Amino acid sequence: MANQDYETHEHDVLVIGAGGAGLRAAIEAAAQGVSVGLVCKSLLGKAHTVMAEGGIAASLGNVWPEDNWQVHFRDTMRGGKMLNNWRMAQLHAQEAPDRVLELERWGALFDRTKDGRILQRDFGGHRYARLAHVGDRTGLEMIRTLQYHGIHQGIDVYMECKVERLLKDGDRVCGAFGYWRNTGQFVLFKTKAVVLATGGIGKAWKITSNSWEYTGDGQSLALWAGADLMDMEFVQFHPTGMVWPPSVRGILVTEGVRGDGGTLKNSTGERFMFNYIPEFFKSETADNEKEADAWYEDKKNNRRTPDLLPRDEVARAINAEVKAGRGSPHGGVFLDICTRRPADYIRRRLPSMYHQFKELADVDITKEPMEVGPTCHYVMGGVRVDADTTAATIPGLFAAGEVAAGLHGSNRLGGNSLSDLLVFGRRAGLYAALYAKDFGGAVTITPSKVESIASAMLAPFSRSGGENAYALQAELQDTMQTLVGIIRTESELKEALKRLGALKDRSGKVRVEGGRTYNPGWHIALDLTSLLTVSECCAQAALERKESRGGHTREDHPYTDDTWGKVNIVQRLREGVVRLTRESLPQMPDELRVLFQERK
Amino acid sequence: MPTFTMRVFRGDADGGDFKEYQVDADEGMVVLDVIHRLQATQAHDLACRWNCKAGKCGSCSAEINGKPRLMCMTRMNLFPAGQTISVAPIRTFPIIRDLVTDVSYNYEKAKSVPPLRLKPPEADGTYRMMQEDIDRIQEFHKCIECFLCQDVCHVIRDHEEHKRAFAGPRFFIKIAGLDMHPLDTVDRSEFALRQAGVGLCNITKCCTEVCPEHIHITDNGIIPMKERMTDNFDPIVWLLRKFRGGQKEAPA
Asked: Above 80 in pLDDT, residue B248?
């Protein structure tokens, strides 16, 4: 069939996704001397990393010399309610400072301390001011630095290209098949190793900080290829998204606002976070305003403000305040920095927040409080990987960044994502390159498999009547928002699975009009398959975990349960059905365990 | 809920025309919201690029009522109700489809800029930089690569013949940022003059006017660069040296 022609490219390592993790992986693989292809759905430099605001968590100790990797490790594990893969958390805390300094050597210009070193800012759940940052546009600095370093490393970049399926030769991954979004023409990649760096699944919710790209592509590609997913029930709702006007609902308001002194208030003007300090964080959290405010300057004699509790705690608290009728006019709460910091400080530290509120909401944040509420932001779960090598559970497949599971446990601390991308992006590139170098034999692609993927992709053009992909996507987002949101319960999760099943049936009837050249209707239809897959995995795992922990809160099982604290939920595809198992959490060695006994 | 008439360019490399649509706009909506509403309801295959919807990624550049702007940062209440609003692709670059253009020119130019080469670190293996020494470069680093400055720059827009030897304002501030980096050791003056063609810029400041990040591209980037060029690289001196022979050809 003429329209199923495709071009072919060959690489040792194919990196899918070009945010922080993908770019860092590609750079590392290229440094190992192998041939590298880098595929991205958007133009280069537009991936979600560009939107990261607050900073990169790394215990450089520039502001607080007391900081070190052990403290960062401990904060990360406690933030994730101890469900993290301890080895990943250890590697992450140990290697993050080197990765930040490396970024500086590649041209990144972080804000400085008075003695000319990298300045670090406070963030939720971090004991010390730890985030290397550039105002509130750290992600932009990071992606631009990686991008401009990367383009000189001999990497072949395939922009606006989407991978639809991974291909296998026996057990191992041997290629990827997809299409150019520009032309709609097919493209085949023959490769010895694949690194997934595709980010998250946030587009499955209606109120989200995620862009159109985050449709769970990598998680789905892995699952369909036979790899394990893990912890898919854990979804982070960032406590502070914009709530007004409706068109900007969900757009992120950086945690840096609170890190730099901003505080949450309800409609009575009360700093309500003092009423929501959980037992788990009591000993390290200030219980009065005086101590909380003093903590910014003096961390030795004061405990951290509850405004900077981990994100899951703050999101639940905001949710509860709004439910109790103490919300702001548009269904959020107030985030006030204008009465707490001078206007020029706010404009210097938070220029993009200032700009964003001024332009999109007619709010001057140096004069008025912001209205904020929870927005879907990040998935802690994803592809199950080996901690050291980032290898997935099928040969030739690696994963790093948001698409991978383990590092963040049940809840991610702010700032730990950008460091995750650098640390595990590098490791993924390294180990994928080593795997490719050791690869014996030829890469063999089965043409009939390619043909059948191509036919399925074109099917929506030739259906008569049928469903509208935009409408189905909106229904899916409504379902996840109302039934698999911040607070979950058994009956609603079951209802969600039923509705997702119905949507899946209807997605087989989607009809697309127009041609193959840059056709967003077709793109949405193709992305719907992965979005449905990850939504189902999330709801199924959420139904299974009968406790509340981190980014998974069950109204019908409101407490954290120690027996659940020892297991991860793992999902894999068998005979076309997602099967779920409980697997034991790797236990950390004693020399790390002692870090959790000390208290200051 | 005011209704607007949107005139949206529909077409591809073979040609096209504006098509009119009636769309309702809710409170707070931006042009990109209206385009999305069009896609979902009336024109499922209407092509446009977007990502962050918050002015941070620079994907949704278009010409709105003839002015280069980000669709995500252009509020509908900017326009009186009932006004017809035209949305066209950034026309300096070849069209792919509807509002999507081929911006690969910019990615080619990006590759040509000589990258950072650091001087050796301090004795303790680290680098020190003072905030006041990087303030100006941090301004350039705010660039979101929306390419609106490239779109509006008449050297690129109106002179196809210049494209080969002219990098455009986006890359002038890229070069300026590298040149001003406190740790950099590369001399890019020859590159800036010969390959990037900074001499072709006649400082009309159109680029600065359209920059959604309010970067002072001309005043802080291009003009100081031109000044450095004349300090370092006077073509007459260069020619004289060449004729006299024996002296360094490359600028100091």
From this structure: no
Question: Are A252 and A363 members of one domain?
Answer: yes
Q: Do A520 and B45 touch (CB under 8 A)?
A: yes
Helix (H) or strand (E) holding A492: helix A490-507
Which of A401, A421, A386, A405 has its CA nearest to residue A102?
A421
Active site residue A258: yes
What are the tens digits of pLDDT across the range A292-314?
A: 999 999 999 999 999 999 999 99
Q: How confident is the model at residue B232 (pLDDT cuts 50, 70, 90)?
A: low
Q: Could you tell me if B240 and B117 lie in one domain?
A: yes
- Residue A247: the pLDDT is 86
What distance in Å separates the CA atoms of residue B31 and residue B89, rounded to the nearest whole number?
A: 13
Asked if B55 and A101 come within 8 Å (Cβ–Cβ), the reply is no
CA distance A19 to A235: 20
Which residues sit opposite A187 in a β-bridge? A7, A178
Q: How far is CA A161 from CA A20, A217, A250, A283, B31, in A?
A: 17, 13, 27, 50, 26
CB-based contact B44 A360, cutoff 8 Å:
no
Q: Does A506 participate in catalysis according to the annotation? A: no
What is the rounded average pLDDT for all residues in chain A? 96
* φ/ψ (deg, to 5) at A570: -115, 135
Q: Dihedral sign, CA of A542, A548, A552, A553? A: positive
Domain boundary among B56, B84, B101: B101
Is B83 or B61 the better-scoring residue by pLDDT?
A: B61
Question: How does pLDDT run across A401-427, given as a tens digit for each residue?
Answer: 999 999 999 999 999 999 999 999 999
A268 and A365 fall within a common domain: yes
Which of B26, B59, B144 is closest, CB to CB, to A140?
B144
CA dihedral B25→B31→B33→B37, nearest 10 degrees, is 70
What would the DSSP string read from start to end of A14-82?
A: EEE--SHHHHHHHHHHHHTT--EEEEESSSTT-SGGGG--S-EE----SS-TT--HHHHHHHHHHHTTT
CB contact under 8 A, B51 and A50: yes
Domain C-terminal end among B79, B101, B123:
B101
Measure the CA angle with vertex A495, ends A494 and A498; round to 5°: 90
Percent helix, strand and coil across chain A, each to the nearest 5? 40, 20, 40
Domain span including residue A502:
447-563
pTM: 0.95
Give the pLDDT of residue B247.
Answer: 40
**Which residue in chain A has the smallest CA separation from B49?**
A42
Per-residue model confidence as pLDDT tens digits over A199-208:
999 999 999 9
Give the CA distances from residue A70 to residues A90, A95, A305, B88, in Å, rounded to whole numbers and listed in that order: 8, 12, 22, 54
Residue A519 lies in a domain: yes
- Hey, what amino acid is at B67? K
**Secondary structure (DSSP) of B182-233:** TTB----HHIIIIIS-GGG-----HHHHH-TT---IIIIIIHHHHHHHHHH-
Structure confidence by residue, pLDDT tens digits, B152-174: 999 999 988 888 899 999 999 99
Interface A-B, measured as beta-carbon pairs within 8 A, has a size of: 159
Domain count, chain B: 2
**pLDDT value at position B240?**
65
Consecutive H or E run containing A351: helix A351-361
Q: Contact A256/A133 with Cβ under 8 angstroms?
A: yes
* ipTM > 0.90 (yes/no): yes
Q: Are A484 and A537 in contact (CB under 8 A)?
A: no
Asked if A185 and A6 touch (Cβ cutoff 8 Å), the reply is: yes
* For chain A, percent of residues with pLDDT exceeding 70: 99
A518: pLDDT confidence band, cut at 50, 70 and 90?
A: very high
pLDDT over 70 at A488, yes or no: yes
Closest CA to A262 of A359, A362, A132, A353: A353
